[in-house]
Each structure stands twice: as C-alpha cells, then as structure tokens.
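Case study B.
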Amino acid sequence: GENVEQHPSTLSVQEGDSAVIKCTYSDSASNYFPWYKQELGKRPQLIIDIRSNVGEKKDQRIAVTLNKTAKHFSLHITETQPEDSAVYFCAASRSNFGNEKLTFGTGTRLTIIP
Amino acid sequence: DTGVSQDPRHKITKRGQNVTFRCDPISEHNRLYWYRQTLGQGPEFLTYFQNEAQLEKSRLLSDRFSAERPKGSFSTLEIQRTEQGDSAMYLCASSLGRGSRGANVLTFGAGSRLTVL
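Model:
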C-alpha cells in the first residue's frame, strides 16, 4: 500500500519568514496530493491540492510543488503569519479527483514566532 | 449548520463495551469516509461509502469494527468489545464524488473522541 512520509515533524519560523514542508510517497500510481491544515482541537481543512499533470500550484501565500519522478511534493508558505500556526498534513491518493482513500503523512507542527 | 456532523463528540467507555458513532454528511455529498486519528499522527483510513455501498475497508480494521450507511445518507461506525488501543479520534468526512475537478474535496467533521478505560 501507499506510504507517505512527512518532514519535519516540527517547524518554528519567525513571522514573515517562509516555511517549507516536504513529503515523499511510495505508490507511483498516486496522482492526487492535497494538503490539510488542522488547528488545535479543530477538524482538518483542505488548504491546497495538486494533481499529477501539474508541477506547481499557487494560491496567494501558499504554493505546492510536485516532482513525480522523485515522488515528492512540498508545501511552501511565504510571509508567514501567526494564524499559520497549526499542524499540516500532506496526503496522497490514486485518483485524480481524490475519489479513493487518502493516505496521510504524520503531520508537521508549524509554530510562527511573533 | 451545513457541515459534517458527528455524534457524540466525546465517549468514555470501559473495555469490552460496544460503542457506536454517527456521522451526518453534507446533504448533497454521496461519498462518506471514516478515518481514525491518534495523538501526533495523521488520519488513518478506515472505510468509505459511495451512497449506501461500502467500497473499501482497511485491512487494518478488525472484525470488531463495522460501518453502515443504510440509506445513503448518515453513517454509523460501531466498535464491539472495545480495547484500550481503540482510543482515538474518529473522523468522518464527505465529498461530492462526482469525478469533476474540485468536487472531491473532503470535508471533515469535528470528530468523535473515544476513550477506552
């Protein structure tokens, strides 16, 4: 089955700096890669996703890159703000549209230092 | 509230007891998923439904776990003869499942936290 590894497990950055979280996956058939943000005590919420026919996607301060050859994808947050503090999960799925099950990484706890 | 609802939010039970969780998805969503999340870990897939049909069940799920979605709307997850290792947050999620871009974003519920003593 699919295995998704995520690094680092914790990350602290100064407010205004950039944060990068990296994930690798094992199933070469995976083709849908979403990122979820989970604030303390709250439900995971999708923040951005990317499909295998795209190498990069950006949404305001958030961007995701995908390298299918190397089987890794990354989340980039620029100009970090205190409200970015949360746990971030990457995930992978075989379906282009996420119809099938998502396999999640173990999460990265991001702390923004004011 | 038009989001995914889960009940109860918290359940404390003694080892060996049965527990049942309910999930009400977003009304127009025909896919429903159950995940389990333990402290410091990502959500772990348990099972999912397309309408009333259970399409996949994790091999990690023991026979003590059963899920139903009898009318293709709400779903229940039952755990029989609970063990301490079952203590976790049980998350339900739903999606439109129509195969078009953006239609398969998973919307999660707030979860049902199970503590087995």
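The longest strand of chain A covers residues 19-25. The remaining cases will be described in the next quarterly update.
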